[in-house]
Write a structure and sequence with these properties.
There is one protein chain. With 345 residues, the chain is of the alpha/beta class. The protein has 2 domains: 164 residues, D-Maltodextrin-Binding Protein, domain 2, CATH 3.40.190.10; 148 residues, Periplasmic binding protein-like II (D-Maltodextrin-Binding Protein, domain 2, 3-Layer(aba) Sandwich). Helix content is 40%, strand content 15%. It is built from 14 helices and 9 strands. The longest helix is centred in the first third of the chain and has 18 residues. The radius of gyration is 21 Å and the shape is globular. It starts with a helix and ends with a helix. The structure holds pentane-1,5-diamine (N2P). The site of pentane-1,5-diamine has 10 residues, from β9.
């Protein structure tokens, strides 16, 4: 008995020393998209490592970036989409990752590499892959068609939302017109701007935070949103459906990055590694309904999730869809159009 206690004590002490948690437990500060991690996973990490995780949430890459730029947070880890990883890296906001401390990157699905510009994971480790699409109430939108043009349908005037996100909203209009959502062609961008201005007059608002509640409560009948988020609310309202428009959509890979000023880089590496434990990644996929690109986790998810086309995107959707890329100085083309759309009467 004594021996057992001694052994337990040694193990605990070793863990404590390893992460330096001797007196006050260490705290990891994580800034993540809302509804993007299973809460029990956070708790098991805290228990396993004898530390605390403080989570803060955001609903768009741009609001996250603005907060960091304003000096807010004191965060260790953030979860930007791949185009934003690029922007942050270019602005020297990130520090390189120590792969020796993230052995679970061996499980990464190499197929996810086409969605990132950092395929060697120097600054980022893929977290989740998902799409954008349309969530709607099947009983209230009986003539639903799987097209972005639904946002121009006067039958649903004032009862729809488009994402308050410049690349997603302009991207939807570009896709509706049959163009790339990374186009640099000003003529195509002007057409997308005009279409978006027409849609703006027909929707309730641009909205990225409240569209889920709005759909559950039937305040909104049809919303532009993220795949997993809409899948999550289907559990609360069986009338909700999620569809990727036939013109194609944006597919995003959100990645985990370590900020240059991270107060706890050791613990941050341990958390990245933990999120890619196959068993943990599988639990997380089942909860958030996004796809953690971890090959070993694919084997562990339920058949229901494995056969869900909103989680494992079918090839025909992939073929029509695109990743939002960082366009360097041409990002300004999009932000300029967004200002025009926002300013339009
Ligand atoms: C989580 C939304 C994450 C998807 N609520 C954004 N790519």
């Amino acid at each position: 008995m004594k021996k057992l206690h001694l052994r337990m004590l040694t193990t605990v002490l070793a863990g404590v020393l390893m992460l330096g948690c001797a007196k006050k437990p260490l705290t990891l500060h994580v800034f993540i998209w809302s509804d993007y991690i299973k809460p029990e996973i956070v708790q098991s990490f805290e228990q396993k490592f004898g530390c605390k995780i403080v989570l803060d949430y955001y609903d768009s890459n741009e609001s996250m970036y603005a907060k960091l730029k304003a000096g807010g947070g004191g965060y260790d880890l953030v979860f930007p989409s791949s185009y934003m990883v690029n922007i942050m890296q270019r602005q020297d906001m990130l520090q390189p990752l120590d792969h020796a401390k993230i052995p679970n990157i061996q499980h990464l699905d190499p197929a996810a590499n086409r969605f990132t510009m950092d395929s060697n994971h120097v600054f980022s480790v893929p977290y989740m892959l998902g799409s954008s699409g349309i969530g709607y109430l099947t009983s209230k939108v009986p003539d639903f068609k799987p097209t972005w043009r639904m946002f121009g349908d006067p039958a649903y005037k004032g009862r729809m939302t488009l994402m308050n996100d410049y690349r997603e909203a302009i991207g939807a209009a570009l896709k509706a017109l049959g163009y790339s959502l990374n186009t640099l062609d000003t003529n195509e961008l002007v057409q997308a701007r005009d279409l978006l201005i027409q849609w703006k007059a027909n929707i309730a608002k641009f909205e990225s935070e409240q569209y889920k509640n709005g759909l559950i409560s039937a305040e909104f009948l049809l919303v532009h949103g993220y795949s997993g988020d809409i899948m999550q609310i289907m559990e609360e309202n069986a009338d909700i459906a999620y569809v990727v428009p036939e013109e194609g959509t944006s597919v995003a890979l959100d990645e985990i990055v370590l900020l240059k000023q991270a107060p706890q880089p050791e613990l941050a590496h341990a958390f990245i590694n933990f999120l890619h434990e196959p068993e943990i990644a599988a639990q997380n996929i089942e909860f958030v309904y996004y796809l953690c690109p971890n090959l070993a986790a694919y084997e562990l998810v339920s058949d229901e999730v494995r056969n869900d086309p909103a989680v494992f995107l079918p090839q025909n959707i992939m073929d029509k869809s695109e990743v939002v890329w960082d366009l360097g100085e041409n990002n300004a083309l999009y932000s300029h159009i967004w200002d025009e759309v926002k300013g339009a009467e």
